[in-house]
Every structure is written in C-alpha cells, then in structure tokens.
Design a protein that fits this description.
CATH class of the largest domain in chain B: Alpha Beta
Number of strands of chain B: 13
Radius of gyration of chain B: 24 Å
Number of strands of chain A: 0
CATH class of one domain in chain A: Mainly Alpha
Distance between the termini of chain B: 67 Å
Distance between the termini of chain A: 34 Å
CATH architecture of the largest domain in chain B: 3-Layer(aba) Sandwich
Order of helices and strands of chain A: HHHHHHHHHHHHH
Shape of chain A: globular
Low-confidence stretches of chain A: none
CATH topology of the largest domain in chain B: D-Maltodextrin-Binding Protein, domain 2
Low-confidence stretches of chain B: 10-26
Helix content of chain B: 40-55%
CATH superfamily of one domain in chain A: MetI-like
Largest interface: A-B, 40 and 46 residues
Structural class of chain B: alpha/beta
Number of helices of chain A: 13
CATH topology of one domain in chain A: MetI-like fold
Structural class of chain A: mainly alpha
Oligomer: heterodimer
CATH superfamily of the largest domain in chain B: Periplasmic binding protein-like II
Largest sheet of chain B: 6 strands, mixed
Mean pLDDT of chain A: 92
C-alpha cells in the first residue's frame, strides 16, 4: 500500500520539500545571480529585510489583504449560499453566474480589470460613474485605494467558488433541525445563528483557510493590475520577493523573504486553525 | 513474442529515422540561435530580415520579453539554470552579468574595434568588452505638431516655458501631457533629463557617476536641486495623480489619437504611433532645463548585444555580432528605430520627427547615467522611479526618493562587491 503513495511522495519531496529546505539554506548565504559561489553570511539577509520599511510594508499589506479577503469573501459567500439555497426560480442560473469568474485565470481577470479600472479616458468603470454624474475615481493610481481595488476583483472572482462549497454544506443539513427550531419559536436570524452557522463549520473551516492562504500568497492580480504601485502602495510579500529579490538578482535575499513568508503563513494558519478548533469543540 | 519483437524493431527504426535530421542539424547545416531581447521584434524587423538574408546557415529565434514583464528576472533565472539564450540584448545589467562570468569576453574580436569607444564603455568591465552597442536610444517629449500649431505654441526651451505650455494648452481645452505613470520609468527618465541639464552639463560633475559606484557620493546630496526643479511639473499640475492609474500603452494610445498634446517616450514607439494614427504630425523636443538652452535627451548607447558565455553556439553568435558591425546592418537596425550608430564612419539621418532635437544632438546632450556608468543601474533607478510615484501621490518628498535610490545602491554594493 505504501508503494502506491511513492510517486506522490517523490513528487512532493522533489518539488516542495527539497526546494523549501534549500530556500532555508540559501537564506543565510550571499548567493546572487552576480555571485554564483555563495558563502555563509548568517542572518544578514534577515537583518536587511527587517530594517527595510518597504519590505515590512509589503508584509503588512499581505496580512491586511488576507484578513479582509477572508472576512469579506466568506461573509458574502455565506449570504449568497443561504439565499440561493432556497427554492428560487433563478437559483441555478444565479449560482452559475456567481461561479463563472472562478473558471478564469487570475491574470486574465487582473488584466481585464486593469482596463476596466484605469484612469485613462477609456476606463469603463469611470465612464459608467461619469454617466451617472459621478466624479472619476483613481482606482489603481491612488495609494490609499490601489490594494483594495485589487482585493475587490479577487472577492468578485472567488466569492462564487466559496459559495458553491457553502451550498454543498447547506444541502447536508438535516431539514428537521430547521423545523424543530421554528416549532420552538426561533426567528430567521436565530435559525441562522443557532442552526445554520454552526453546522456550516466544515465548509467555513475549509474556505477560511483557503482564502487566508490565497490572500497571503497574492501575486498574480497585483502583478497584472498595479505592479505593486503606485510606489510601494500595493506591494505584497510575493511581489516584493519577486521584484527586489529575483528581479534584482538577489537570490539569497529573496530566499530570506520566502522563509519569512513561510513563517507568516504557518503562524496565521495555525492561529486560525486554533480558533476553528475551539469553535468546533463548542458546537459538538 | 513475435509481436513484441516486431514492435521493438519498429520502434528502433522510427528512432533511427528520427535521428537522421537531428544529426544533420548538429553537423551545422542550420544553427538555431536564441536571441532574447527587451525591445519588440517590430522594432528590429528590418535588421532581423537582414540577418536572415545574410546568414542563411543561422536561424534566429527572437524572444521578446519586455522590461515591464520582468525581462531581467526571467533572464537571470535562465542564466542561473544554465538554459540562457545564445545572444542577449542587454542594457544596465551588462556589467553585473560580466562580473559574474555569465558573458563572453569579446575584447579580442575584430569587430569590436569598429565601434567608437563611447559606445563600448557602458559594456566594459575591468577593461574587457562584453557587449557591442546597438543604435543609440534617446527619450524626449513627443508632441503633436498640429495641436501646437493650432494654438500658436512653440517648442519650450526651459522648464518654466514647458510648464507654461501645459497651462496654455489646458486653457485652450487640450490635455497637455499624458503619461503612463503606473510604470515607474517615465518620471524617472523625465527627472533625470532635468538632472542632465542641471547637473551633468557641469564639467565639475564629470566624475560623479564613478564615485557613485563606490557610494562615495549620493544622489540625495548632488541631484536634489535638479530633481527639486523638475518636481515643479508636479507642483504646477503638469503631472497629475490620475496618471498613476494609466499604463504606458494607454498613454500612448491617448497621445496617438490626439487626446493629449505631449507624451514622453522614444523612437521605438514611433511605428506604433503611426500605426494607430497615420496622420499624426509628430515631433520630439528634448527635456528642457531651468535655464533656456538646447535641452537634454535621456539616452545613449542603450542596449548592446552580448553572448552567453555558456552558449553552445558561440561561433554562430559571433557571426551575428560581426555582421551587425557593418554599415548595412546599422542601416537595417535604424530602419525601424531611428537612432545614431556607434559604428565608426556611419552617420545616419534621424528624420524630420527629431528635427527639434538637432541642437541637443549636436551638443552631445544625450545621457543616461544608470546605463552608461552605474554598476547597479537597474535596481537603483527602479527604487528611484517607484519612490517618484510616491512623490506624485504626495506621500514622499524628492529628498526621500533620492535617498531611496542611494539606499538601494548601497545595498547592492554591499551584497555584490563586499
């Protein structure tokens, strides 16, 4: 039986574990494109990283992005799932419409919204706002807005995907529980809070972790829409790692960034898993 | 059993048949060279056709990766993996890659001596030549001559006049300048154009860039007056924050369609502009300085051809470089991208579009320090350009932007040299 898992194990070792361990190793060297023979430099790359305001800002952006993405996407997805789980005439059509963006590539969505949200005269979104008498908005060029503009496109793309998972979970909830709650006099909000939400735990735990990790990993949409700009306003861990690390040939520095990224993802995932486990314990 | 033997025999025959053309290619009938460049094929179309005609034994596979699409990152990764292209169009990274032993030393090649030293200096590392220059590049302010004429506006000769042109056009209901400032490049180049006027035009600063390579001088101290002078275009509203939400292509399209009267770029955009609007009455003027004068263009020997030291087809790659060092090849190079040649004895006409730049060219007012002299040009100007985006959005000062560039220079010196 163990032999059956060998191909997957070899693949996992070759393409994940080994590169990850190598990244840890290279992060304490001075390896770069311009210095092919690396030597040990201790924690120097980490010192450089943590004394760099732009790198720290990128880490903060990633965490903020991931947290907002997780909350907004899952709130909207649960709302849509509960709504479309009812026997509505157009429910199936609406489910398909909401899910469709998820089949597109993130880069395609990014480039699409770059044209929709541009502040150029050809920008569709500002043209639409203008048609209603509104003032144009600098969606991608305002440092206070750029990251949220990217985030909005990703919420648009992935909410339908999360919704489908929530709907699958809702289908598994025994209808007699709702009936019993209503007989006991529970209103719609109480039914949602006391029956639906606790029983959505399996889908919630999966979706929350996926959107959190996806948010922390964000690269493609930022790359397509803002390139981390204006300035450093929408830089994330991944875009900074690529631009100041690999693009500038500073491979070891990029590896140090990868290690920090691993620690951030691991810590946040563990924290969320801890909360979810507490929740699971409370409802079982 | 017989069936298995037959299948094995058949497989052997197929493999042998498949090997025949491969062997022929390996013997050198047609050598395929990978040519990776950060300028698109259409800007080299005539040159590539010329190479195909003159070198029938060499097939060139042209691979275009724009700088905006991470040319340096992709190239570095390929070289690191030992899978780099044979010939590379390289600019600011030449010295870095030469120092790392990634590039072939061309010093002893006969064709190198055919180029003027000014064209070879940016591609020289520790006395060895690693690249031969393509035609010069330069960036100035493209303008729509018809719009200027319609509103009685003449080409500005000073920064104040440049700002006044913006105000006059705006008063006439015309968008003065468009800029794809979502890219960090245009503001970086425009401000360096003013630094050329105000700083590099002073002979006393001739040695500045060499000292910058060792971090003995800083931009924050030396360039501050020049870049502060340039920043007046932001204070006066010539450059606006909405430009941060526009891409290079969107700004180019707006200018080509007559939606704006000025746009900063270079000759490589000329074919795209005329493709979008064949009737465009196009001109270019140099970036002006504080005092009235001929102005400066940002540019120089912008890119070179280098050979990957690990290429298995070095002889064929050298043939391409040798052929490029002929007047015919230089004419072919400039057919799609007007520029001056660094090949000794070759003088090319730039055409009417660049007539307003003639005085600047005559005075030799073309310079791009990050390509010409700086060892770590690309990361430094990227840090500077991104910080200028923050200057435009009002979250950073000019002094802070220059300090960011200095900091990146110091980091690179520390990481690479020490």
């Amino acid at each position: 039986m163990l032999l059956m898992a060998l191909p997957a194990f070899i693949g996992f070792m070759t393409f994940f574990i080994t590169p990850a361990v190598m990244s840890f190793g290279y992060s304490v060297t001075n390896w770069s494109v311009y210095r092919p023979e690396p030597s040990y430099v201790g924690l120097k790359n980490f010192q450089t990283l943590f004394s760099d305001a732009q790198a720290l800002a990128a880490i903060e952006h990633s965490i903020r992005y991931a947290l907002i993405m997780t909350v907004v996407q899952n709130t909207l997805a649960i709302f849509l799932a509960v709504l479309l789980n009812k026997k509505l005439m157009m429910a199936n059509v609406l489910k398909t419409i909401f899910f469709l963006p998820a089949v597109l590539s993130i880069l395609v969505v990014g480039y699409l919204f770059k044209f929709i949200m541009t502040s150029a005269p050809s920008g569709m979104l500002n043209s639409a706002i203008g048609a209603f008498g509104g003032a144009p908005v600098n969606w991608l060029g305002d440092p206070n807005l750029a990251l949220y503009s990217v985030l909005a496109t990703q919420v648009w793309q992935w909410t339908g995907w999360a919704m489908v998972i929530y709907i699958a979970n809702l289908k598994s909830i025994d209808a007699s529980l709702y009936e019993a709650a209503r007989i006991d006099g529970a209103g719609p909000m109480q039914v949602f809070g006391r029956v639906t939400l606790p029983l959505l735990y399996p889908a919630t735990s999966f979706n929350v972790l996926m959107s959190l990790i996806g948010g922390l990993k964000m690269f493609d949409a930022v790359y397509a829409m803002t390139r981390g700009g204006p300035g450093y306003a929408s830089e994330t861990i991944m875009t900074t790692m690529i631009s100041t690390g690999f693009k500038a040939g500073r491979n070891a520095y990029a590896c140090a960034f990868a290690v920090v990224f691993f620690v951030v993802v691991f810590t946040m995932s563990k924290a969320v898993t801890f909360v979810l486990n507490k929740w699971e314990a409370a409802i079982t | 059993m017989k069936r298995k033997s037959f299948l094995a025999l058949l497989l052997c025959v197929v493999l042998m048949l498949g090997a025949v053309p491969f062997s022929a290619a390996a013997e050198g009938e047609v050598v395929t060279l990978r040519f990776m460049a950060y300028n698109p094929a259409q800007s080299r179309a005539t040159y590539l056709e010329f190479l195909a005609d003159q070198l029938p034994g060499i097939e060139i596979v042209f691979e275009y990766v724009s700088l905006d699409d991470d040319f340096n990152g992709i190239l570095n990764a390929q070289l690191e993996a030992g899978a780099g292209p044979d010939i590379i169009e390289l600019g600011g990274e030449t010295k870095l890659l030469a120092a790392a032993g990634r590039l072939l030393d061309l010093s002893d090649q006969e064709f190198v001596a055919k180029y003027a030293q000014a064209g070879l200096t940016p591609y020289t590392w520790e006395g060895k030549v690693f690249g031969t220059p393509l035609q010069s590049w330069y960036e100035g302010i493209f303008y729509n001559k018809a719009i200027f004429a319609e509103h009685g506006i003449s080409v500005p000769k000073s920064l104040d006049a440049f700002i006044q042109v913006h105000k006059d056009l705006e008063a006439a209901g015309v968008k003065p300048q468009t800029m794809g400032a979502s890219s960090w490049e245009p503001m970086m180049k425009q401000s360096i154009g003013v630094a050329n006027n105000e700083f590099y035009s002073d002979p006393a600063n001739a040695g500045f860039d060499a000292l910058f390579n060792t971090s003995e001088v800083s931009l924050a101290e030396s360039w501050l007056p020049a870049v502060t002078a340039w920043a007046k275009v932001i204070e006066e509203g010539c450059l606006t924050t909405d430009m941060l939400g526009m891409s290079y292509e969107q700004a180019q399209a707006e200018f080509a369609s007559g939606g704006a009267a000025m746009w900063e770029s270079g000759p490589w955009a000329e074919s795209d502009l005329f493709a979008a609007n064949p009737d465009l009455d196009l001109g270019m003027f140099p970036i002006p300085g504080v005092s009235e004068g001929p102005g400066w263009l940002v540019g120089g020997p912008g890119s070179s051809l280098v050979i990957n030291a690990k290429s298995e087809k070095i002889e064929a790659a050298l043939q391409v470089l040798a052929l490029t060092a002929t007047p015919e090849a230089q004419i072919a190079l400039t057919a799609d991208w007007p520029g001056s040649s660094f090949l000794i004895g070759v003088n090319l006409d730039l055409g009417d579009v660049y007539a307003d730049c003639a005085e600047a060219f005559a005075a030799g007012n073309v310079y791009a320090p990050w390509v010409a002299v700086w060892d770590f040009g690309n990361p430094v100007v990227e840090a500077y350009g991104k910080s200028l985006q923050e200057v435009l959005s009002g979250t950073k000062t000019v002094a802070e932007a220059l300090a960011d560039a200095d900091r990146m220079n110091a980091i690179m010196i520390d990481e690479i040299k020490n």
